[in-house]
Design a protein that fits this description.
35% of the residues lie in helices and 16% in strands. The longest helix is centred in the last third of the chain and has 18 residues. It is built from twelve helices and twelve strands. It has a seven-stranded parallel β-sheet with strand order 8-7-6-9-10-11-12, with helices on both faces. A five-stranded parallel β-sheet has the order 2-1-3-4-5.
């Protein structure tokens, strides 16, 4: 098979595919014209952040699979691929540890006032009482979305002495010694911490909006490491200002460009500026799952999935 690499990926993927007899074409280093010439010959593509829509697929009439290095599939028209009989693969297993560990890091940074403590000392201050922290032990952590990332966070919480509630609209029977399966209402009423682990689609757009935050029965620490669009940023900031959210950590923003290479404030500049100024919101640039190990594992997992479907080149 001829497989196009739309974005740069860890070389292990290309090495494994070529060892099985497939040909890999690095589309990302070709000129626009050469890419157009290559697309009609492709039977598979590997992508990270580039958009794979109807126009792209129409130029690849032989396409049999689309493989995303990562978890989210919002940059791929999955419904259209299904109608065309194109298999869509992803590799959330590859960076689940990175995301789970980052959630613990972000939560502890919020609860222990890590960032303001660091800034205070660098400014020559020593405000120990003003920066008195909160213990995670004894708290209830609510996880919404119990896939690879949500379950990883739950696993990483073992040893902290917390109660873990998890809600997933499309899963059940996953409760165990680590996590208690929960309906959404109970989770929103009883959690001290809420962490989102949802894909971005029409159903989850602004999932955490005004109604979500007004349903909370106690002030919470809030985490989002999934996709920025699942949170209504203005509603979140209002909730922080009103005390419904104690503090928030966002690794993803609804202001991210589709290619995940930066921010675009043009959709709502007032909320964008308000977000950047807010001292109770911790921001990181979509790096929760960006680790050296995760880069390798995402590519390796994806290679395995491709080769499970297409074990070797035919002659």
């Amino acid at each position: 098979m001829r497989i196009g690499l739309v974005d740069p990926v860890h070389p292990v993927l290309q090495q494994r595919l070529e060892k099985a007899g497939h040909a890999c074409i690095a589309l990302h280093v070709l000129s626009g014209k050469d890419q157009e010439l290559a697309r009609p010959t492709l039977e598979g593509i590997v992508v990270r952040s580039k958009k794979i829509d109807a126009v792209f697929m129409d130029h690849c009439p032989k396409l049999r699979f689309i493989a995303r290095v990562g978890a989210g599939l919002e940059n791929i028209d999955v419904a259209l691929a299904g109608r065309k009989g194109i298999v869509v693969l992803n590799s959330p297993e590859g960076n689940r540890d990175g995301v789970g560990e980052s959630c613990v890091m972000l939560l502890l940074a919020l609860m222990k006032s890590l960032v303001p403590a660091n800034m205070s000392v660098r400014a020559g201050l020593w405000p120990r009482e003003a920066l008195r922290g909160t213990d995670l032990s004894g708290k209830t952590v609510g996880i919404i979305g119990y896939g690879q990332m949500g379950s990883s966070f739950a696993e990483k919480l073992v040893g902290f002495g917390v109660r873990v509630l998890a809600h997933d609209k499309y899963k059940n029977g996953f409760g165990n010694g680590i996590v208690q399966e929960s309906n959404l209402e109970t989770l929103l009423h009883e959690s001290d911490v809420i962490s989102l682990h949802l894909p971005l689609n029409a159903e989850t757009k602004h999932y955490a909006g005004e109604r979500f935050f007004t349903t909370l029965q106690r002030p919470v620490w809030f985490l989002n490491t999934s996709r920025g669009g699942v949170v209504d940023t203005k509603a979140l900031l209002d909730a922080v200002d009103r005390g419904r959210v104690i503090a928030a950590a966002l690794d993803v923003l609804e202001f991210e460009r589709p290619e995940l290479d930066g921010l675009d404030r043009s959709t709502d500049p007032d909320t964008f500026d308000r977000l950047l100024r807010h001292d109770r919101v911790l921001l990181t640039p979509h790096i929760a799952g960006v680790t050296h190990e995760g880069k390798y594992k995402m590519a390796d997992v994806l290679a395995t999935k491709i080769l499970d479907l297409f074990p070797h080149a035919t002659t």
